[in-house]
Design goal:
13% of the residues are buried. This protein is mainly β. It starts with 7 loop residues before the first strand and ends with a strand. Helices cover 0% and strands 50% of the residues. It has a single domain, classed as Thrombin, subunit H. This is F-box/WD repeat-containing protein 12. It comes from Saguinus oedipus (Cotton-top tamarin). InterPro entries: WD40/YVTN_repeat-like_dom_sf, WD40_repeat_dom_sf.
Length: 101
């Protein structure tokens, strides 16, 4: 990161919250409201200041870690085992893996 940017860590708390921490300051700078379901996975798009989570209810949520509520939510038909987020020339792209038996 350049001198203008902050290093931020995103984590999930045992209290079912998504949290953002300022690494240099060692302080929490944002937390989501307590979620109804535990967050099971998260990925980030740091260039866009976004975090994407999936919870135990199989709902994907997009957060900007500034607003209280998610920017978007999408219920999935099955459990998401793996997510990868990429930024392409056409915009952000999220890949989600579901089990196939």
């Amino acid at each position: 990161m350049d001198e203008q940017e902050k290093s931020i860590i995103c984590s999930v708390s045992p209290k079912k919250e998504l949290c953002a921490w300022d690494v240099q300051e060692g302080t929490m700078i944002w937390s989501s409201p307590v979620q109804k379901f535990q967050i099971s996975n998260l990925v980030t798009l740091p260039q866009m200041h976004l975090v994407i989570t999936v919870d135990m209810s199989k709902t994907i949520k997009v957060w900007n870690c500034q607003d209280r509520d998610p920017l978007a939510a999408l219920p999935m038909p099955d459990t998401c085992y793996c997510m990868e987020a990429h930024l392409t020339k056409d915009g952000p792209f999220l890949m989600v893996s579901e089990p196939r038996f």
